[in-house]
Amino acid sequence: MTDTAREEILGRINEALGRRGGGEYVSSTSGSAPSGSPAASRADGSHSSSAAESAHPRQGAPAAGGGVVGQSADYLRTGTHSGEDLIELLVDRLVDYKANVHRVTGDPAETIVGLLEPGSAVVVPKGLDDTWLNGFTGKVSVDAPGSQLSVPELDSQAAVVTASAVSIAQTGTIVLDGSDDCGRRAITLVPDHHVCVVRVEDIVDIVPEGISRLEPSAPLTFISGPSATSDIELKRVEGVHGPRTLDVVIVDT
Amino acid sequence: MTFLGMPLLRSKHTDVNDLPGGQGNIVEDESFATVSHKHLSNQQLRNNIGHATSTIRDKRSGVVAELDDWEELREAGSRAKNQVMANLPEYLEEFEANFTAAGGIIHWARDADEANAIVTELVEANAPVLETGRREVIKVKSMATQEIGLNEHLETQGIDAFETDLAELIVQLGDDKPSHILVPAIHRNRDEIRQIFMDKMPDAGELTNDPAVLAEAARRHLREKFLTTKVAVSGANFGIADTGTLGVVESEGNGRMCLTLPETLITVMGIEKLLPSFSDLEVFLQLLPRSSTGERMNPYTSFWTGKTPGDGPQNVHLVILDNGRTRALADEHGRTALNCIRCSACMNVCPVYERTGGHAYGSTYPGPIGAILSPLLTGVETEENGSLPYASSLCGACYDVCPVKINIPEILVHLRNEDVEANHSPVSSQLDTALTGASWMMGDGKRMAAAEKGLPLAHAVSGGKSMNSLPGIAGAWTSSRDIPGLPEKSFRQLWAEDEDRDEDRDENGEDET
Amino acid sequence: MKIALFATCIVDGMYPEVAQATVTILRRLGHEVTFPSGQACCGQMHINSGKFEQAEPVINNHVRAFTSTEWDVAVAPSASCVASLGHQQPMVARRMGNEALATAAADVAGRTYELSQLLTDVLGVTDAAADLGSYFPHSVTYHPSCHGMRLLRLGDRQSDLIRSVEDIEFIELPLADACCGFGGTFSVKNPEVSSAMLADKARTIQATGAEVCTGGDASCLLHIGGGLSRFQRTGRFEGTPDVTAVHVKETSATDIGGDHTEHLTAVVGADDDDHLTAGEHGTSPAEPSQMQSGLRVGASTVHLARILASTKEDPLRVQSEGATVSGGSLR
Predict the structure, then answer these.
(1) Could you tell me where the beta strands, DSSP code E, fall in chain C?
(2) ipTM of the complex
(3) Are residues B299 and A224, on separate chains, in Cβ contact within 8 Å?
(4) What is the CATH number of domain C2-121?
(5) Residues ≥6 apart with Cβ < 8 Å to A152
(6) Are the Cβ atoms of B436 and C63 closer than 8 angstroms?
(7) B464–A contact, CB cutoff 8 A
(8) Where in chain C is the domain with CATH 3.40.50?
(9) What is the model's pLDDT at position C251?
(10) Domain ranges of chain B
(11) Per-residue pLDDT for A11 more than 70?
């Protein structure tokens, strides 16, 4: 049933675009690898309806690996902040969205441990620098492939401590990418308190700089402040289903 | 000089009637003017919506003003979506190949019925029957599943779908309908929400109307469901062709819960949601949050590519939905409506939406975008969807804020033309008759001048006084407005008299005084 | 410069004084004004009603009228009509398969300016008092029409000209960028929503306490004036179901604030218009007997061309100076 649906929908699209009189769908990638280059077929003028051309003056095949929009539009690709200005911008934006921000030069252990409830249960991803919890008196569970905490176990953790992949100053956004020191997605979701370490070298100014540093196939989570809702009279309330407390530790080594 | 029309050259686009329209919650049952009458008289509704939309308008304009390159970003967003629509088969194939290679399973649905059946089958295969004899799924807010009426369908199949977005929860518990695409319960104020929660959440206890207290009640109400439910249903804000990645943009963490904890994830996404490349997100992750919630970035955005071993659901499905989208795509003058990224900025600035609320539009998609999208998906001849394009004063505020530059006013006018051509009423309305007469008169300045010769008579009859109560269609006007009395002479007549006098003067050789 | 006047149908037939004022201003600047006699309408009314087929002869007539005489630039005292020439006429002509008309319409539109555009961008007028002798010693608020703002991007052109009139008191209109609800046939197709929008617009204008509300589009001003007039006659903002009646005295106490109350009561109009007809389908407004004379105060509307044309020697008179106000419009 669905195979038929697939052919029919693609056929309808061709018809809608006025291609080849519409109807019959002919695969444009038949014979090439699944993730091959449809760009080649897009560059083929025979695929372009006159309507499409008139609507898209700059239509053409995107450069391999590059975004379509990246070719032509004049929006900013790099920011203007650097050094201390950049860090201050990130701090400002994080605080604006109700994250708690702590700045450390050198070893962050004392700051991190100070944020955790003494004697409480804390989960960390397997790749987390284990010196970061030096001096912590509670129980540390290491979540690792093959020895993952169950959902109820995660629910009983007071906090989670992770590193982060990239942070975007302009929007106050921290990105976790599932790497060894960020951990799988569930560990930063179920516990109610997230202590997240941001390395100064991972801070970029604007969104395009952040996106370009990411590996698309990784499970990605963009975090901008603690969970929030504005669903009641558009009034922003922090703390719904995700961690209600977000502590960000910015580390300058 | 006459510019003769040449009928043979008349532009002919694909006959959209060849393609089937969409089904589900995208149909206005009664004309907009009729439905809006009921909502206009609801003062509480007007107050709630007026307060909410003005709040979010201010937030949006504040964060948009922070970006020097906003217009360039809009242009980039518009181009990217145009590119997708012009090459949709190729991008869909590319997406399919990449998503499948990453372990995801794709299903195609021609319409609402087919999509509902696919989801039902997947839920039956993956969600256990509970002691109640029913199955359960958790849901993250999704316009596509609202559109196809998935929850209602699942209910008939013994499956309870729990909405987890706070506003969707308010709507679901209140046996209500969403009235806004970002804030579905925008028509409810805190007192009404408190009452709904008190009535429908047996364990909630005594609640105040403080939004923080109400949000906390929702957290407690849903916590156990998040941690135990095996199947989740989501929509998608973006599908990335060159990587096979899906993305959901949200605020509360309910999205992360649904996308991360269950064993099975079923996503329903319209064919138009694609972006060419992952790097295009650098534009859309700026456009969407600022236009939508008026934030620099929403609290949480999740991206997943098929399945990731050891992280999140290992049974990952995607239902790719047509349901009238190809019909909209076939309309060369309306197809850019498919570029919509569902930010809701247009309804927040719309003076009509602000006064009628979203329910008046009869569709999952209210406001200016709904007034074009619903008739494009179904055709203007479906029920009263032909009345939606008239639900606008064409003030243009929607076009100004649209992050992907959809020229909504122009498409509204285009669809009015479609309506005029498709819905020929056997009996002309008074307005139609008046416009036909005006076309004849205004098609020739001489006829216009002749008509204006009647002005002295009309002026004499009215005594030049204002007209405050007229019959017929003019009565619609004079129900709340006066009309100035007609002048004795038109400008054309006054000008001609001046010229005659000048000529007389010239002929008599008089000096100008 | 030889300037062709496009009066627009509504000004030609209902507000000839606006076209006369436009001619006066341009002549004062030393330009020759012509009036292409075949002109009628831009076609917007038909286009916005979806009646492209009926719009075509109207467009054709406009283009024929303006291509059969020689002129340097054309001007219209209407942003909406000028916008229609450029944004709609070529589109509709093309949709009707009439490429020649589309090209010619685009050419005419490209040389046609809205009045404030012409004065500011082409004729270099920056100070109405100095350049035009404009004088209007009254309080004025200003409604920027939607098409002027969003289609022509007039920005501050109109308001800057008004502000530069000698002795004018310019009062900022709250929520100025909100549509008045006219929208051509929108006000007939969805009269209740339109009335609700109008009521809010009239309310904010009334609350400024200004003597007149001006703008660059006679159609919007006709609509707004009609709402103001009805309010001033009946004390209610009507037309939408169950909209709370707002008595002007309450308004002056709550919305307007003390500053303008005195002024408002001083500006008592003498609008004793009777009903022209009271057809069986028409909704009869409140009877005059229910009105109190104190209700009949507030703003009337007038096109900015007439304020710019007003001078010390030949001033535009307002209602308190005995001018006639009809249907809310200053005559």
Answers:
(1) 2-5, 32-34, 73-76, 112-114, 139-142, 169-171, 212-215, 300-303, 325-326, 329-330
(2) 0.92
(3) yes
(4) 3.40.50
(5) B227
(6) no
(7) no
(8) 2-121
(9) 37
(10) 444-503
(11) yes
